[in-house]
Design goal:
single chain; Alpha-Beta Plaits
Length: about 325
């Protein structure tokens, strides 16, 4: 394949098309399909580094069987692909089955693959993954195709990173950065949506307002870093007790609000009492070791019984929570 201006224009057009896609998965699919087309290959994969597992998993593919795609993620430096990412250098061969570093020879043989070309997705001084294209024939990929795929990979990396940055910015606009739950603004937006849904379908829901007892005292005693850890650990514990459709957000400081769709006051009260019991028995980290003296007060209100607006529903739950504070803390009060 002759490397020329037409191909550069084609790459430019392909990358411009990325703006029409909604999410990262669609973008990755778009990239791998076009990598295959540009290099006259028959199939392709795109792997990226997963910071949670520490491995390279296949995030997008084209023209490959489920059996081939079922292969386990690779460690950095493992096999051909792992080395491409570790070293940041491309690799190509027309005799894959005789390459010592190939760790999935049986899968490649079953797929009928002989020739591969793999190039890293380079970001500044590191590779974040790689694009690999495959042929069943023993037709070697040319240096022109290698150069072309390198240019395409460079453009693709930039597009992927911009999309991830945009996703992060969108998430920051909706989520609390410390607790990884909705922030106050988006929590109220979700509450308004739930009110509309409940009104339209004649449904009920419960709102629960939580405030940690003596949180300022904890911060003064143990420091703000452990105060943050307390908030994070408490939130994780609460989330572990919720259903998938329950809504949780940080209302402010140490205040957390739960919206439990299609749940009456009895159900909401039972839920929050179970959570409070778990919190009371949980070991939280203090400056002098683990402590088990954490509690909270919670107020429970319901739609439409306690109001039909977000302000009314949250207000009633907040008032009930303050009553619990006055009654001795570590309690649940129903509006």
């Amino acid at each position: 394949m002759k490397y020329n201006e037409d191909l550069l224009n084609k790459i430019h057009f392909i990358m411009e098309r990325i703006v029409v896609f909604d999410g990262i998965d669609e973008v990755l699919d778009h990239i791998v399909k076009n990598a295959v087309a540009l290099t006259r290959a028959e199939a392709g994969t795109l792997r990226t580094f997963d910071i949670t597992t520490g491995k390279l998993g296949i995030k997008a593919s084209f023209g490959l069987s489920k059996g081939f795609l079922s292969q386990a993620p690779l460690r950095i430096g493992e096999g051909i692909i792992g080395k491409v990412v570790k070293d940041g250098k491309p690799f190509m061969t027309s005799d894959l089955l005789n390459v010592t570093d190939c760790v999935h020879k049986k899968l490649a043989q079953k797929e009928g693959i002989n020739s591969i070309l793999s190039v890293p997705l380079k970001s500044s001084n590191k590779a974040i993954g790689c694009i690999t294209v495959y042929r069943k024939a023993r037709e070697k990929f040319t240096n022109s195709e290698l150069l072309l795929l390198n240019i395409f990979a460079s453009q693709s990396t930039e597009a992927i990173e911009k999309l991830k940055l945009l996703d992060d910015l969108k998430r920051q606009a909706s989520f609390d950065s410390l607790l990884d739950i909705y922030n106050r603004g988006f929590l109220l937006t979700r509450l308004e949506e739930e009110i509309k849904r409940a009104s339209r379908h004649d449904l009920i829901f419960t709102a629960i307002f939580i405030d940690i007892d003596d949180f300022k005292k904890f911060n003064d005693t143990h420091g703000h870093l452990l105060g943050d850890k307390l908030l994070v650990d408490l939130t994780k514990l609460i989330k572990s007790k919720l259903r998938k459709n329950d809504i949780i957000g940080r209302y402010g400081g140490e205040e957390i609000v739960i919206i439990a769709p299609e749940t009456d006051k009895k159900g909401g009260t039972s839920l929050i009492k179970k959570i409070l019991k778990s919190v009371n028995h949980h070991s939280f980290t203090g400056s002098n070791g683990d402590i088990r003296k954490i509690g909270f007060c919670a107020g429970v209100s319901a739609y439409p019984e306690d109001g039909k607006t977000a302000k009314e529903i949250i207000g009633k739950a907040d008032q009930a929570m303050y009553k619990a504070k006055k009654d001795g803390k570590n309690k649940v009060v129903i509006s």
